[in-house]
Amino acid sequence: MGWEVKMKLKDALKKKKFVVTSEVQSPIDQEPEDLVRSLSNVRGRVDGVSLSEVELEGFVGDTIKTCELLNKSQLEPIYQTTTRDKNRLQLQNDLVEAHNAGIDNLLVFTEDYRITGDSLQEMMFFHVDAGKLQSVLEHIREGRTVEGDTLKSKADFLLGSGVESGWGKNVPDLEMKEMEEMTKLGTGYFLTTPVFDVDQFEKFLKQTQTFGIPVIAEVMILRTAGMARFLNRHLKSGMVPDWIIQKLAREPDKQKASIEIFSDIVTGLKDLCQGVHIITIGGEEKLKSYLDAAKLK
Fold first, then answer.
1. Sign of the C-alpha dihedral computed for residues 135, 191, 82 and 210 taken in this order
2. How many CB atoms lie under 10 A from the CB of residue 55?
3. N or C: which end of the chain has fewer CB within 10 A?
């Protein structure tokens, strides 16, 4: 079909390339083929596409089928899951199925890391989850299940771990412990929460650089001031700075303002970390315009 075979995400990180990944949701209201088609204009320009598991009124999008389709279309899939709501067997079954489907990349959130606090209860949740994940990964890397059965083949993933990066230089001890635990687990990269304030992000990196693990910064495409206000109200107060909200509200051409904000943030990140993970919030077909403006690939 004349498609260029892309370097694997693992190799791109190893070679210290500035990687570009993007996140989409497993489709519930559309065919997986349509989603994959909407990404065809960025093929060769993104190093990986992560699929978040979506559950709507008990119906779950078929993440693994969509990952398989991405693979066939020369778009490297990243299977994304949380560990908190799955027991060891459920987690193992999902990871074995992903491996059998040819998926090499795994992105895990030990809990809903976007609302990290440092209460004892959350710390206990974290340790249970890290232990659960470690147990499953150790077994399937050796080609066996947690029950002791033999698997058809050993499963090893490039493991990405979600971390909260909005602390600036005031990173709590709990967060440092989480990152240390995930480093011991064999994490290949840390994926941060959305970055809007590059200076604050730089302070976070200075505090955590001792781990020596590549960091990929999440960048969210904000298309309207209403979307930015929604994040501040429902996700985290003050997450999106006022200047971004004002620019989106003031500018008559919303698309132009959105692209400029994205491009400014990405330009600031290029010298700080090893890549960006773009959250399109349903705007996959416009992703190419954002990549062009920020001179990504």
1. positive
2. 11
3. N
Closest CA to 105 of 10, 195, 186: 10
Over residues 160-185, mean pLDDT: 85
Q: How many CA atoms lie within 13 A of 161 on its CB side?
A: 23
51-87 confidence digits (pLDDT tens): 876 655 554 557 888 889 899 888 999 998 877 778 8
Tell me the CA distances in angstroms from 285 to 41, 73, 226, 241, 289, one per residue in order: 8, 16, 21, 26, 9
d(CA 81, CA 102): 16
Residues 44, 4 contacting (CB under 8 angstroms): yes
Residue 169 makes CB contacts below 8 A (sequence gap 6+) with 203, 204, 206, 207
CA of residue 259 relative to chain centroid, distance: 21
Identify the helix (H) or strand (E) that includes residue 9.
helix 9-14
Distance, in Å, from the CA atom of 204 to the CA atom of 8, rounded to the nearest integer, reads: 28
Q: Encoding tokens for residue 154? A: 């050993």
Q: How far apart are CA 33 and CA 38, in angstroms?
A: 9
